[in-house]
Amino acid sequence: MAQTDTWLGLAGRIAVVTGAGGGLGRAIAGGLADAGARLVLLDRDLPSCEETAAALRTRGAAATAMRCDVTDPEDVAAAADRTARDLGACQVLVNNAGLLRPGPIATLTLEEWNRLMSVNLTGYFLVAKAFGRQMLERKAGALVHVASIAGRHPQPWSGAYSVSKAGVVMLSQQLALEWGPSGVRSNVVSPGLVRTPMTDAYYRIPEVAERRAGIVPLRRVATTGDIADVVAFLASDRAGYVNGEDVCCDGGFGRVLMGLVPRPGFEARDPAEG
Question: pTM for the whole thing?
């Protein structure tokens, strides 16, 4: 049976998660389910989305899978209408569907640029607008958008990825400003290095896995559960006065810059030695 976490105040709430067929979306859905939320899972890949829903139901959670292409306004509107009709108004929305493609800016085509932006940014706008309308009518709700530390630090050779994630942060902040007076909060979680099915190939190379963990102050790469925990908090009543924030979940990776500067006499020491 799913564990109902009453401390978070999410029991019985209808939570919509996009990209729920992927590794991070599946973990986010699981975290919300453990808190007692009723899940609506959206993904272009319906079989994977249904796998997530089935796994949650075996844990005693209420979960419904729907096929939805977040870049298609009609798909998004249909998913929002079906949710409201069959289950009730959306109370929590997690914008998580994402796309990553390699490529230098110098040779990036407009088609490739538009494709990535349509999923990573425009899709977030379309879904927020469709499901946010239900929150605005109730004058309550929480949106959590999954961005990336790449939205703060440019990630080279990744096409429009960093630009799209920076856009997600600003979209969330504008929603927070415009919808906050109606009782609807909007926040971002920006993961750092995370081991997911999409990035798993990197970590199967021992030296790559070791180097990646070694550059993080906590000396480990995040699990999907680490990110899911932050999402659940931002969606919950415990974050009821948190609005318009970008919460970085990277183990301190974004703070390593000054540690890269050679400085004789200031070498790293074991804290246990005093």
Answer: 0.94
Tens of pLDDT, residue by residue over 63-84, are 999 999 999 999 999 999 999 9
Amino acid at 72: D
> How many structural domains compose the chain?
1
Which position among 161, 202, 203, 241 bears the catalytic label? 161
Q: Which of 21, 74, 27, 26 is nearest to 228 (CA)?
A: 27
CATH, residue 60: 3.40.50.720
What contacts 45, CB < 8 A, 6 or more positions away?
A: 21
Q: At what angle do helices 46-58 and 23-34 cross, to 10 degrees?
A: 30
Residue of 57, 58, 65 whose CA lies nearest to 17? 65
The size of the chain, in residues, is 274
Tokens of 25: 């979306």
Report which of 202, 252, 198 is spatially closest to residue 224, judged by C-alpha positions.
198
What's the CA gap between 251 and 194, in Å, rounded? Answer: 10
Contact residues for 144 (Cβ-Cβ < 8 A; gap 6+)? 92, 93, 94, 95, 187, 188, 189, 231, 234, 235
- Is 203 among the catalytic positions? no
Residue pair 271/217 in contact by the 8 Å Cβ criterion:
no
At 269 the pLDDT is 75
Name 39's bridge partners: 15, 63
Rg (the chain; Cα; Å): 19
What letter represents residue 44's amino acid? R
Q: Which two tokens stand for residue 100?
A: 């990553």
Cα-Cα end-to-end distance for the chain:
47
The secondary structure element, H or E, covering residue 55 is: helix 46-58
Find the domain containing 96 and state its range: 6-194+226-249
Q: Is residue 209 part of a domain?
A: no
